[in-house]
Write a structure and sequence with these properties.
Elements lengths: L7 E5 L2 E7 L6 E6 L3 H20 L2 H17 L1 H12 L3 H26 L3 E3 L7 E9 L2 E5 L7 H12 L3 E5 L5 H13 L7 E3 L4 H8 L5 E5 L2 H14 L3 E4 L4 E5 L5 H13 L9 E7 H16 L19 H16 L3 E4 L15 E4 L6 H4 L6 E7 L2 H9 L6 E5 L3 H9 L5 E4 L20 E2 L4 H6 L2 E9 L14 H16 L1 H5 L3
Helix pairs in contact: 1-7, 2-4, 3-4, 3-6, 4-5, 9-10
This protein binds nicotinamide-adenine-dinucleotide (NAD).
């Protein structure tokens, strides 16, 4: 079935515009201007001019701005949630929790902790005892941030907050599917009184994103698909600009024989269907060991049938819309491919005919295998395929049989067994007896291995990724010359040879730890 294209490029008076539609109702929301390459370059230049002053301010002062943004966000939470719900079609509760509450936590954490996390580090030197080493974390300059539509508020705000707290200026390019959320963010930062051009938003589509990558930014922070991530990595490689890539996932869930089945079933249903499955770390495939498979699956199906879907956004709906029409087509293709190859749908399996907007029923599938796209490729929709496995070893093997490696979950009553299994899974993070929470833990670095991305956001590691580390070597002792400076001599050569032996081949060297 042909889908209405909610985003349609149009030429108006020589300038390109995009129309934006609400996915839950297909109502036209308005249009945005597409920023040209010149617009983007000018924004980056303005950011560069503003950055010296911003980075010269103290952590406390930058933190005060961020806390003002947070306070305004709390005061305007309902109005911001309106924009998020309209642009994405998600239930209001999800807008309030994963987007707004998550954003408030990010603003608070980095406002209060950036100074501690980025303080100079003094290092003891094992060999050059006449020197001291200090590592200093310096801002990079202007950071270009490019974001997707699934959590358009949090995924735009959170990297921006980290970049700003570290002393950078930001140019954000939000998704063209949910641009009004990006503009609401710009308005919030402006109301908080941030100095001009410290945080700027340029709207547009992939061409605007590509222009930002080519605009001379000092770093690109990208969250989105593997397909776009590759293009960005190539462009950043050519320009020798560092980038962080937070890409897609196909997160496995392993249900062990000793799992609390009620908790595991509830966790599976939430992990697969929250945000209508449009979460990079959604539970996208389940491996359950044979002895508990039937009981687990029956409970999952029963709980899934209780879910309420629709365009309501006032707290009495569990599943919202599919935000992007292209994604809805992928979901339909994955289910059709699985059915053609022998899978069975136990509940759901189609677009929800009760609604005009873009809704797909929460779907549970069994008799699936790795020949099917639904077990290999990112579905990014409300689908929960369940594969029965002999034992935990087979579950780990299948979990790792993937080009992705974002996150994973292991369900067992034995936490240490969960930890051991976690260590065997090739993923950027693993949760035992829960799922989808790592991004919300401010202290935890977040990111993927394999095609799920490069680099980490969040926590100390993520914050430091918006800095370059500067090594500063200081003297402890000063003479007129150093031993290894000119003039070279036979005496110095003899000293070096004796030192070589003493350090690496003598009992004294061993005592010194060489
Ligand atoms: P997308 O790659 O289509 O678009 C993301 C952003 O990139 C948009 O703003 C888009 O305009 C821009 N863009 C497109 N082409 C570009 C180009 N050539 N150069 C620069 N920018 C360009 O992704 P999407 O469909 O918006 O988002 C869904 C994807 O995001 C899923 O794969 C999901 O797994 C992933 N995602 C990952 C994380 C994570 O943290 N790992 C979080 C959320 C979403």
């Amino acid at each position: 079935m042909a889908l209405l294209q909610p985003v349609t490029p149009r030429e108006l008076h020589g300038r390109r515009k995009l129309e934006v539609f609400a996915p839950a109702t297909l109502e036209r929301l308005g249009e945005i201007e597409v920023a040209s390459a010149d617009d983007v370059r000018e924004a980056v230049a303005r950011g560069r001019a503003a950055q010296a002053d911003w980075s010269a301010r103290s952590f406390e002062e930058r933190g005060r701005f961020l806390l003002r943004v947070r306070d305004l966000l709390v005061d305007q939470a309902d109005a911001i949630a309106d924009v998020i719900c309209r642009d994405t079609g998600k239930p209001r509760l999800e807008a309030m929790t994963s987007e707004i509450l998550g954003a408030c936590d990010s603003l608070t954490f980095y406002a209060k902790n950036a100074k501690r996390l980025l303080r100079d580090e003094k290092k003891r030197l094992h060999l050059m005892k006449t020197k001291k080493l200090v590592l200093s974390y310096r801002p990079m300059g202007v950071v270009g941030i490019i974001t997707p539509w699934n959590f358009p508020f949090l995924l735009a705000l959170n990297p921006s907050v980290q970049a700003l707290a570290a002393g950078n200026c930001v140019v954000l390019k939000p998704s063209e599917i949910t641009p009004f959320v990006g503009l609401a963010l710009a308005e919030l930062f402006a109301q908080a009184g941030l100095p001009a051009n410290v945080f700027q938003v340029v709207t547009g589509d992939g061409a605007t994103g590509a222009a930002l990558v080519d605009s001379g930014c000092d770093k690109i922070s990208f969250t989105g698909s593997v397909r776009t991530g590759r293009k960005i990595a190539e462009a950043c490689g050519r320009a020798l600009v560092p980038c962080t890539l937070e890409l897609g996932g196909k997160d496995p869930m392993i249900v062990c024989g000793d799992a609390d089945l009620e908790r595991a079933a509830r966790g599976a249903v939430w992990g697969a269907f929250t945000n209508a499955g449009q979460v990079c770390m959604s539970t996208e495939r389940v491996y359950v060991v044979e002895p508990v498979a039937q009981a687990f699956t029956e409970r999952v199906v029963a709980l899934t049938r209780e879910l309420r879907q629709g365009p309501e956004t006032e707290g009495d709906v569990d599943l919202g819309a599919i935000t992007s029409p292209a994604q809805l087509e992928i979901i339909e293709q994955h289910v059709a491919d699985a059915l053609a190859k022998g899978a069975k749908v136990l509940t759901g399996g189609r677009r929800n005919p009760a609604f005009k907007g873009l809704f797909f029923e929460p779907t549970v599938l069994v008799d699936v295998n790795h020949e099917m796209a639904i077990m290999r490729e990112e579905t990014f929709g409300p689908c929960l395929p369940i594969q029965v496995v002999r034992d935990e070893d087979e579950a780990v093997r299948l979990a790792n049989e993937s080009v992705y490696g974002l996150q994973a979950s292991v369900w067992t009553r034995d936490s240490w067994k969960g930890k051991r299994l976690a260590n065997r899974i090739a993923a950027g993070g693993v949760v035992v007896d829960d799922c989808i929470i790592t991004y919300g833990i401010a202290e935890s670095p977040f990111g993927g291995v394999k095609e799920s991305g490069i680099g980490r956001v969040n926590g100390e590691l993520g914050l430091k990724s918006y800095c370059h580390v500067q090594s500063i070597v200081l003297p402890r002792l000063r003479g007129k010359r150093e031993l290894l400076w000119y003039p070279y001599s036979a005496k110095t050569l003899g000293l070096v040879k004796r030192a070589l032996h003493l350090l690496y081949r003598s009992p004294l060297g061993k005592l010194l730890g060489s």
